[in-house]
Specification:
Blueprint (H helix, E strand, L loop, with lengths): L1 H16 L16 H9 L2 E4 L20 H5 L5 E6 L15 H16 L3 E6 L3 H4 L15 H15 L7 E4 L11 H15 L7 E3 L2 H4 L15 E6 L4 H4 L19 H21 L3 E5 L8 H17 L3 E4 L9 E2 L4 E2 L1 H8 L1
Parallel strand pairs: 1-2, 1-8, 2-3, 3-4, 4-5, 5-6, 6-7, 7-8
Antiparallel strand pairs: 9-10
The chain binds beta-D-glucopyranose (BGC).
Length: 350
């Protein structure tokens, strides 16, 4: 009997200590294959390698994706999301021929994380002109009539390029569609993109999210083509005036000094997760929270409380996640001192 109990205890410890946070049975997967469902459950805990390959040019924002990060990140996370501004590393013409030198650089990054056994989300990030947003310094404009076809052609090349990589490589079609893509334009474009990817990658997991910057409230507007290898991403930066306080590049910056998280703030976070969860249940697609995080201007205790709270809430709902981000101004790692910001790392992982 004692032996029996011990075995159960050991099994329990194994289950609790398992890196994958969600058992597939707790996910909503009626619309996808068993393999896709399995991947959704195994994405677990992840981190965005943000502000490195997604500025207009690598290094423009003061962060570089260094090889030494691999051994920091790989033991702690199951997944990395790699935002890449392909639009600024491709011909300005309709064909959007990829800059081979830059693509070769991205190949190495992807392969190094795959070699560690991690899931890698390749995220096409910041195609600003497509949304009608202003261009950033060092970003080149393209003719409006080639904007969408360029995106299709970028994916045609990326899909061909990575078609033989392991199924742990996931394609994320477009970060945070918004502005001009809100509503039907995104539905029409995502169908074109999926069709393009499928000609060379019939079963690869594709991640995509709703409009209005991947807001849960826009999930109901998504119209998805018949495809059983899709995962759906939402982003959650609620309460926005807390997570984005003190950021100067916002059109109307929020004052600093907002703490987190009282009951009302907690509800803002969980309402969005519940809305997404209800959609997932109704439509049968599993969810991934691709971005959440708090900017460095908030006080450290509040950032840690926020991170722990939202992490627990996502995990209770069986949602895998990737924190925004590793080492930038939202980060949990200090790239200058080359150490984790311990209170944040603990809140996220312990
Ligand atoms: C953007 C970052 C931004 C973050 C939080 C990301 O999608 O690429 O530039 O800091 O969201 O707003």
């Amino acid at each position: 009997m004692r032996m029996h109990l011990y075995r159960w205890f050991a099994l329990l410890v194994m289950a609790v200590g398992m890196p994958s946070i969600a058992l597939s049975e707790s996910l909503n997967c009626q619309a996808v294959t068993a393999e896709t469902c399995d991947i959704a459950g195994k994405l677990g805990r992840g981190i965005n390698l943000g502000n490195m390959l997604d500025p207009p040019r690598e290094g423009d924002w003061g962060y570089w994706l260094l090889p030494e990060y691999l051994d920091k990140v790989a033991p702690l996370f199951q997944t990395v999301r790699i935002p890449v501004r392909w639009s600024n590393h491709a011909a300005a013409t309709e064909d959007a021929t990829l800059d081979e030198r830059f693509a070769g650089r991205v190949d190495k990054v992807i392969d190094s994380y795959l070699a560690k056994g991690m899931y890698v989300i390749l995220d096409l990030h910041h195609y600003n002109q497509l949304f009608g947003d202003a261009l950033m310094p060092n970003e080149y404009p393209v003719a409006p009539e080639v904007l969408e076809t360029r995106l299709v052609n970028m994916w045609q090349q990326l899909a061909e390029r990575y078609k033989d990589r392991s199924d742990k490589l996931i394609f994320e079609l477009l970060n945070e569609p918004h502005g001009k893509l809100n509503g039907e334009p995104w539905n029409a474009l995502l169908a074109r993109l999926i069709k393009t990817v499928r000609s060379s990658n019939p079963t690869r997991t594709i991640l995509l999210g709703p409009t209005e910057w991947n807001a849960a409230k826009d999930l109901e507007k998504l119209r998805l083509p018949e495809d059983r290898y899709l995962l759906i991403a939402i982003h959650n930066y609620e309460p926005f005036n807390f997570t984005h306080q003190g950021i100067k590049y916002l059109p109307k910056p929020f004052p600093t000094g907002t703490t987190c998280c009282n009951k009302q703030q907690q509800l803002m976070i969980t309402d969005a997760l519940d809305l997404a969860q209800a959609w997932s249940k109704k439509h049968g697609y599993p969810l991934h929270v691709g971005e959440f995080g708090a900017y460095k201007a908030a006080d450290m205790d509040s950032r840690a409380s926020y991170i722990r709270f939202i992490r627990d809430e996502m995990e209770q709902r069986g949602m895998g996640w990737t924190y925004w981000d590793f080492a930038s101004s939202f980060g949990i790692y200090d790239p200058k001192a080359r150490v984790w910001i311990e209170p944040l790392r603990r809140a996220l992982l312990d």
